[in-house]
Amino acid sequence: MDEKKRIAIIGCGGMGGGHAIAIGSGTGNAVYNADSSRERGMKIFDTSANTDISTRLELAGIYDINPDRMRWASEKGFALYDSYESMLQDQSVDIILIATPNHLHKDMAIAAMKAGKHVLCEKPVMMNSRELEEVIEVSRETGKLFYPRQNRRWDRDYRIVKKIYEEKLVGNVFRIESRVQGSRGIPGDWRKEREFGGGMMLDWGVHLLDRLLFMIPDKVETVNCRLSYVLKEEVDDGFTMFLTFAGGLSALVEVGTCNFISLPLWYVGGDRGSAVIDNWKCEGKMVQLSSWEDKDTLPIMAGAGLTKTMAPRDQKSLITLPLPDVVYDDNELYSNVVDAVNGVAEPCVTAEQALRVMRLMEAAIRSSEEGKTVRVDG
């Protein structure tokens, strides 16, 4: 039941190369830069809880249409296929990992499942919800797993926020802000092109929304979104989105590529405290309220006038704490794919979850185009 599986990778650019190193080394932690002269391992946190994925997955081989990428893979000692067709014909391959530009995902996923392979697909899994519905139907017809690689559910910053939310460490959460901001514009490759599925909504929005929907059980009621085109490209270079949930919680989701001073990754507001995570190193803090009693508040001078409402709290009523610790296996996704293929576990990430995210992104794009708040069914 714990049978090891063989996986082949189609597409060996930045993401595909990273997968090859991660699976080939068994660590799951290597990050590959598309410039073949530069590679770097990224281990900011303790990884002692991580699974050695070499016990679960074996890299069968790689194919890419770019000769330079094939040469890089060969130099790394990875086996090569001479075409996608030959990869699909390899009876020893159990899983196809799709790491090509977005517009190729649908046809490749369908071909793989019809060839008897399970599919692990990079995000966004499809260009739109209609394509994903087609793929889900083929998955049902063939009995093959289609697994969206929403790997940022295993980001440490998100795991901390999820713990704060679920354990009510700042009370009942009524507001969440989730953002990523950079200052380098859109990457200088196909992500600038509409026909290939470029733009920041599909590149980063899919991650931020997936994490919120996975964490918050309530349905989304409304979305108001504005896509940005600061760089005058044909696809969005960022967006600002406001979501309301049925339970009363609201969320601000932002992605920017022209932010030379970045705001915090996360801000969490609860009725008994607040928390902030400044960056991917998870620097930040949590403040808990010890008492609402504050009878002796005096007004302060705020700008040109006085305010009592916004006067800072006496530190006696607040407890400042470090962010909570979290321990988890950030290689769980790879292991879960194998368990799901072997039939011993349910997928951590499902195609239906990805479909919900895709439909929410489409509602956000419609909100931006129409310039109004859009109601969401779920």
TrEMBL record:
**Transmembrane ranges?**
none
Q: Which organism is it from?
A: Hungatella hathewayi DSM 13479
Q: Where is the Gfo/Idh/MocA-like oxidoreductase N-terminal domain?
A: 6-146
- Enumerate the spans annotated as GFO/IDH/MocA-like oxidoreductase domain: 158-275
Annotated Gene3D superfamilies: Dihydrodipicolinate Reductase, domain 2, NAD(P)-binding Rossmann-like Domain
Domain of life from the UniProt record:
Bacteria
Record Pfam families: GFO_IDH_MocA, GFO_IDH_MocA_C3
Q: Name one GO molecular function term.
A: nucleotide binding
Q: What is this protein called?
A: Oxidoreductase, NAD-binding domain protein
